[in-house]
Specification:
With 301 residues, the protein is mostly helical. It is built from 13 helices and 4 strands. It folds into 3 domains: 8-81, no CATH class; 103-182 and 276-299, Cytochrome c-like domain (Cytochrome Bc1 Complex, Chain D, domain 2), CATH 1.10.760; 186-275, Orthogonal Bundle (Cytochrome Bc1 Complex, Chain D, domain 2), CATH 1.10.760. The chain has helices at 8-33, 62-81, 96-119, 123-126, 130-143, 145-148, 172-181, 191-194, 197-210, 217-226, 228-234, 260-269, 284-299; strands at residues 44-49, 53-56, 183-187, 271-275. The strands form 2 sheets. A two-stranded antiparallel sheet has the order 1-2. The radius of gyration is 34 Å and the shape is elongated.
């Protein structure tokens, strides 16, 4: 309940919760005191339907009243023990997050014996182990396929894991590092550093020339000198730098779209991409198995 945006909502929820219980109690008391006028000795109210259906004036069964009272008492104890009254956390300190973390910890502990044998195996061996691959596939499908695709070939903005083009390196250790801590890739807007819009277009054509793509040779020649503004990250030859995650511009692999227009947009606007860290969800052994599965996409052919 810590995500309320104002002090009104905790009070509103508390009033609704306790007011509903109080209303039910009051209605029960009122119903127990109302006396309906009856006629005769059969305790009916003289209301008759279909010729012989008569409305009786019998009191509520005691067992029903008792159950109703117990329900009210249970509701009060529940609201005292668990979150339910606005920002009141409850005497037991229960939260859905805490229960989830406890269940994950219990599941991981139960799986420790299975993962223990994988933890001591090399990535190259794990990538060929049928049992480890099956586990890695399930982890990948449940957590990674949403971005990288079920075939791991990615899409615009999400890297293809089946080729050998790695922004931060494709060694087993680097893949584990990426999964564990996540990555934040940032290219700042470079238009001001490059120069005029014409300079930006010239640099875009020079970049296209590095990968053998279709380009304007005249503009590419003019853009070569201006590319110096980009060389600090991508290198003087445009081959990138895995230490900082800068892209190789010579391999004709384009994460955010190919062609002059796409490159001009990146120079003008820059780009920030983020892969989340998984260290809080997976154990080191699970990350080891997943990294081996991912490594196998481009190395088990």
């Amino acid at each position: 309940m810590s995500d309320f945006t104002s002090g009104f909502w905790p009070v509103f929820i508390t009033v609704i919760a306790l007011g509903g219980i109080l209303f039910c109690v009051i209605m029960l008391l009122i119903a127990s005191r109302i006396k309906v006028v009856t006629s005769g000795v059969d305790n009916t109210s003289d209301h008759v339907w279909d010729g012989d259906l008569r409305e009786m004036n019998n009191p509520l069964p005691r067992w029903w009243v008792g159950m109703f009272i117990l329900t009210v008492i249970f509701a009060l104890f529940y609201l005292a023990a668990y979150p339910g009254l606005g920002s009141f956390a409850g005497k037991l300190g229960w939260t859905a997050t805490k229960q989830y973390e406890q269940e994950v910890a219990a599941a991981n502990k139960a799986l420790e014996p299975m993962y223990a044998k994988f933890a001591v195996m090399k990535t190259e061996d794990l990538a060929k182990n049928p049992e480890a691959r099956a586990i890695g596939e399930r982890i990948f499908m449940n957590n990674c396929a949403q971005c990288h695709g079920s075939d791991a070939k990615g899409s615009r903005g999400f890297p293809n894991l089946t080729d050998k083009d790695w922004l931060h390196g494709g060694s087993p250790a680097k893949i584990e590092e990426t999964i564990t801590g996540g990555r934040i890739g940032m290219m700042p807007p470079m238009a001001a550093a490059v120069g005029t819009p014409e300079d930006v277009k010239n640099v875009a054509n020079y970049v296209l020339s590095l990968s053998g793509s279709i380009y304007d040779s005249g503009r590419a020649g003019l853009g070569k000198e201006k590319f110096a503004a980009c060389a600090a990250c991508h290198g003087p030859e445009g081959k990138g730098n895995t230490d900082i995650g800068s892209a190789n511009l010579t391999d004709n692999i384009w994460l955010h779209g190919a062609g002059e227009a796409a490159i001009i947009k990146r120079i003008n606007e820059g780009k920030v991409n983020q892969m989340p860290a998984w260290k809080d969800k997976f154990t080191p052994a699970q990350i080891h198995v997943l990294a081996a599965y991912v490594w196998g996409f481009s190395n088990n052919k």
